[in-house]
Amino acid sequence: MELYGSKGSILARKTIGQGEFGEMIACFEENDSGYDAIQIRSKNSGIAINPEPVNMYFAEISEFNFAIREKRTTANSAIIGLSNQKIIASCYEAAKSKEVKDVV
């Protein structure tokens, strides 16, 4: 997965799945030059991001289980999920129209 913005990018390899492995590299731009899809990254550039490995499926089920047992709301909610979906939909719309889109 690759995320690009006006101040840099994050490159993630082998981080989506049930395994507890993968790598993430953050690459920062010196100047805020605006978004550029042709940002060049070398394999050795950037800062390694090393969060503690977690099996995301096990973590989701455990969080849901503990929320029920502790009679509390889950850390993630439908509101957070909907917000994420709106951001993703705006990204797709921006890619199709080649225009900046507001997240509504």
Task: Please tell me about this protein's structure.
By secondary structure, the protein is α+β, with helices and mostly antiparallel strands. The chain has helices at 56-69, 78-97, and strands at residues 2-5, 8-13, 23-28, 47-49. The longest helix has 20 residues, at 78-97.
Low-confidence stretches: none
How would you describe the shape? extended
- Fraction in beta strands: 15-25%
How far from one another are the termini? 24 Å
Q: What about the largest sheet?
A: 4 strands, antiparallel
Task: Give the tally of β-strands.
Answer: 4
On the 0-100 scale, what is the average pLDDT? Answer: 82
SSE order, as H and E? EEEEHH
Write out the strand line-up for the largest beta sheet, numbering strands in chain order.
Answer: 1-2-3-4
Structural class by secondary-structure content: alpha+beta
Number of helices: 2
Percent of residues in helices comes to 25-40%
Oligomer: single chain
> What Rg is obtained from the alpha carbons, in whole angstroms?
17 Å
Offer a few descriptive terms.
104 residues; alpha+beta; 4-stranded antiparallel sheet; 2 helices; 4 strands; 33% helix; extended
